[in-house]
Predict the structure.
Amino acid sequence: MATITKALARTALATTLGGLYTVPTSGTTTVVTSIVVVNTAAGSATFTVLLDGVEIFNLTPIAGNSTISIDMKQVLDANVTPKIIEGVSTSTAVKIHISGVEIS
């Protein structure tokens, strides 16, 4: 088994729901290990993050010029329907970094 530690996503969140990461090929398991969200604007905003269509953060408030860091162990298995991580924010000043491990 190959295990690759990597940044799964590192981007600004859009103001419409969009894909941040898709588990590659069947036979690959991805483990999300941490999510860091930063708001670079002075004003507050909210963000939503979904793992395979299920909200793990839903309209979560983030104060201006602040950071939220979450450690986790969430497994996304590839299968016929690709598993995806999606996100959205009320401001493009909200950035996200998702770290994890791909196991194939």
User: Anything to note?
Assistant: The radius of gyration is 14 Å. The chain has one domain: 3-103.
